[in-house]
């Protein structure tokens, strides 16, 4: 049984500016496991069950074969800003203990947004050191930044320090598209990309 992960979604088409103001929000809990998982939701210390609170619905979307538990908060109320925990249980099969995860929903909870402080494209000479800087401009909880490259893996000598990716003594093999991705389990991850062009040597 893996640790469960809570992701937060919002019904489509609602104004982005007021992400969590009188809005319907979905908390989705997923844990990979075999045997299948049974999920339970708590708000603070209170166990949430279907029908226990008229502002809350708990359901299993039919297309996930009951593996995923979704908690729907209808028109957020002040008491909905709380710590939610999802407990994933395989009912002690083979002595596997339950796993749980907590997500704190606040009126500031928001999906990530980022900015790349670089040109696009970046044209460099072979052997130059290139630094790409990505900063978070929004998102609560604080997004985690990662770098990915169109070559599937970042160059071996590359150094990632927070939102900064440094490519020392770049080679033409390392040219390509580099993307900064920010994720905080709210909405979709944010992604911004830039292309590095390494000048070829004239024959």
TrEMBL record:
Domain of life: Eukaryota
Pfam families, per database record: Ig_3
Range of residues in the leader sequence: none
Domain Ig-like, first and last residues per copy: 4-89, 112-197
SMART domains for the chain: IG, IGc2
InterPro entries: Cell_Adh-Cytoskel_Orgn, Ig-like_dom, Ig-like_dom_sf, Ig-like_fold, Ig_sub, Ig_sub2
Name of the featured protein: MAM domain-containing glycosylphosphatidylinositol anchor protein 2
Organism: Characodon lateralis
Gene field: MDGA2_1
